[in-house]
Amino acid sequence: MKKLFLTGAILAGALSYAQAWTGKGDQKVQIGLSAWGNGTGITGTYDYGLSKIVSVGGGANFYFSDYKDDNEDNNFFIFGRANFHLQDPLNLPKAWDIYPGVDLGVLGSDFGLGVHLGVRYFFNENIGAYIEAGNNGSIGVSFNF
User: Which listed site, 1, 35, 62, 85, has its alpha carbon 20 to 30 Å from 41?
Assistant: First the structure.
């Protein structure tokens, strides 16, 4: 029983230091699976906090199959992004962050525009999970720097 209590206390202590969003200067890297939107593939994003609410960054998606018309140029989407973090306005716990955002970039030879609603949860100071739902959505791991 003491071991179970000690394990729970250590886990609770580790989780209490999790911080999903700190605002200005905050940096996040996310790696995940693009499971819907322009196709199925892998994605990577970077976000940099400009203020308590706004972050900007960039990302890239590589799709396992071509998006449309079997055109080899349509399997890569590179984009800039902006997110609006609602942790403070919604008074969320430190480990949680909800953020709507937009992606603007190039999909092969086409213009790419995406919107998403993202949710992050951090297990500890450095590692968390995220999901972004929208027309360019993904699910994966988030890293804090």
Answer: 85
- What predicted TM-score, i.e. pTM, was given to this entire model? 0.80
What domain range is 124 assigned to? 2-144
Q: Are 82 and 100 in contact (CB under 8 A)?
A: no
* 121: nearest Cα among 102, 145, 140: 140
CATH number at residue 127: 2.40.160.20
Half-sphere exposure of 52 (CA within 13 A, CB side): 5
Q: How far apart are CA 122 and CA 29, in angstroms?
A: 13
